[in-house]
């Protein structure tokens, strides 16, 4: 191969991206390669400089795509503050792996520099003894706050709140409130100053703009507002997300059963909750664990999926039993064996549509007991109409192929009946699971698919047995 002349090489350099010109976000294809190239060439100082400019979520995004050894080495180049932010952004199973590789003193230093919510997030998943050893290196006051936070039940308002906030008493003045605000350690995401009485019970809030524009001698109780709904600390995080969505909150106070102000929840915390819940529901519907990642051991991934596959195997055997019991009917007309999967498949799809609407109603908190009959009547009508339309088209196709009017009629009746059953089951099963305190997104799919398959085969073959 001929080598380019030196003047052409110099000309090409004008078109090659310089390190400083590479955008530092995950949408650019070059930044990851550039970082890894700096690591391979041992250019530590330049690497540290770029890592300091990257957002923690982008660094976490990079670590997810590296093997643990290389990822841990890059993590070691970060400052303690950024390291804590990056660990908080990682998936649970990956974060646990990195934390286990770090020394007790280093983890304690990371935790000490984080807000209590993020500190707890870093420690989640570790054994109690390990957490106690780590916290023994943390100053007492910070340790008490973190332990209190760890004691709140998982997936509740207490587990996602932040204890760092600006609080003033009702009798304190605007001047005092501004002084407290200036001295606060947590200066990010402050939208309101919370007001409490001498016993620490929540009374109201003061928007920052109103605080700044008020006269210095004005007392907090004179200008405080009560628009924010205080959230009990044991409220489920999904209900918290619904409250934020319904009232367009940016932040909200969290209170104890006696009304004592404990902390605050911000909109970015809720965005994470919504994403986690949506991901959990989607993965659960497919029978996959939310903890599974690309770096998860294959044995663990296989074990977590096996349960769902076994349930599907049981439902398949039940369908086989139904088909076998009509063996003589199928022998009379072998075409039945080719047509009957249509009935089960269309029924499963119809049930899935109704199920999606039912799960959505539950997720948005729109489930009302008095509306069950109304919804069933609607789904019955939808199933019947769709059964006539889809069944009519399927019957016409079968008639043109087989020239058998009776067989086509059986298919039409079976599709209508199974689609009515499927839409009704798709409405009732998620609601029943919800009342039994079982996640509707987890159990609905397998139950609806099994029911529509078994009922569809039974109805179609029963009609064939009676009419053929």
Could you please describe the fold and organization of this structure?
The structure is a single chain. The chain has helices spanning 6-13, 30-40, 44-53, 56-63, 68-75, 80-89, 92-101, 104-112, 116-123, 128-135, 140-150, 157-160, 174-183, 208-213, 220-223, 237-247, 267-285, 298-325, 327-332, 335-363, 372-402, 405-435, 440-467, and strands at residues 167-169, 192-196, 202-207, 231-232, 251-255, 261-266. It has 3 domains: 23-157, MgtE N-terminal domain-like (MgtE N-terminal fold, Alpha Horseshoe); 167-285, CBS-domain (Roll), CATH 3.10.580.10; 298-467, Orthogonal Bundle (Tetracycline Repressor, domain 2), CATH 1.10.357.20. 31% of the residues are buried. With 468 residues, it is mainly alpha-helical. The chain is 66% helix and 6% strand. Helix 22 (405-435) runs antiparallel to helix 23. The N and C termini lie far apart (77 Å). It has a 3-stranded mixed β-sheet with strand order 1-2-3. It has a 3-stranded mixed β-sheet with strand order 4-5-6.
């Amino acid at each position: 191969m001929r080598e380019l002349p030196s003047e052409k090489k110099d000309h090409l350099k004008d078109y090659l991206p310089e390190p400083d010109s590479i955008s530092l976000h995950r949408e650019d294809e070059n930044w990851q390669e550039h970082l890894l190239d700096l690591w391979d060439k041992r250019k530590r100082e330049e690497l540290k400089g770029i890592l300091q400019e990257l957002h923690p979520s982008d660094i976490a995004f990079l670590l997810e795509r590296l093997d643990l050894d290389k990822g841990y080495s890059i993590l070691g180049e970060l400052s303690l503050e950024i390291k804590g932010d990056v660990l908080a952004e990682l998936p649970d199973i990956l974060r646990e792996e990195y934390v286990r590789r770090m020394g007790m003193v280093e983890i304690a230093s990371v935790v000490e520099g984080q807000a209590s919510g993020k500190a707890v997030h870093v420690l989640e998943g570790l054994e109690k003894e390990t957490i106690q050893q780590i916290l023994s290196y943390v100053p007492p006051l910070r340790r008490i706050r973190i332990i209190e936070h760890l004691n709140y039940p998982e997936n509740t308002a207490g587990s996602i709140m932040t204890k760092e906030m600006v609080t003033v008493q009702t009798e304190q003045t605007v001047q005092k409130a501004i002084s407290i605000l200036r001295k606060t350690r947590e200066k990010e995401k402050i939208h309101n100053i919370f007001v409490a009485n001498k016993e620490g019970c929540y009374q109201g809030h003061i928007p920052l703009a109103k605080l700044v524009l008020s006269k210095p001698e004005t007392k907090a109780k004179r200008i405080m507002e009560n628009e924010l709904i205080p959230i009990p600390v044991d409220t489920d995080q999904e209900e918290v997300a619904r409250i934020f969505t319904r009232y367009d909150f940016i932040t909200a106070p969290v209170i104890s059963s006696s009304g004592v102000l404990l902390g605050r929840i911000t909109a970015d915390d809720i965005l994470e909750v919504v994403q986690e819940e949506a991901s959990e529901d989607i993965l659960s519907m497919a029978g996959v664990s939310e903890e599974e990642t690309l770096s998860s051991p294959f044995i663990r991934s296989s074990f977590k999926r096996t349960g769902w596959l076994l349930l599907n195997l049981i439902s398949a055997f039940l369908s086989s039993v139904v088909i076998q019991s009509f063996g003589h009917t199928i022998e009379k007309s072998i075409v039945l064996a080719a047509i009957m999967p249509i009935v089960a498949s269309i029924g499963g799809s119809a049930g899935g549509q109704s199920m999606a609407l039912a799960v959505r109603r539950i997720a948005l908190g729109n489930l009302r007991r008095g509306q069950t009959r109304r919804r069933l009547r609607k789904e019955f009508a939808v199933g019947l109409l769709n059964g006539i339309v889809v069944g009519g088209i399927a019957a016409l196709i079968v008639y043109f192929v087989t020239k058998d009017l009776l067989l086509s009629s059986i298919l039409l009746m079976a599709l209508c009946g199974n689609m009515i059953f499927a839409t009704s089951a798709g409405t009732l099963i998620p609601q029943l699971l919800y009342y039994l305190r079982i996640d509707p997104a987890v159990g609905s799919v397998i139950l609806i698919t099994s029911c529509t398959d078994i009922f569809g085969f039974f109805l179609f073959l029963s009609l064939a047995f009676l009419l053929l």
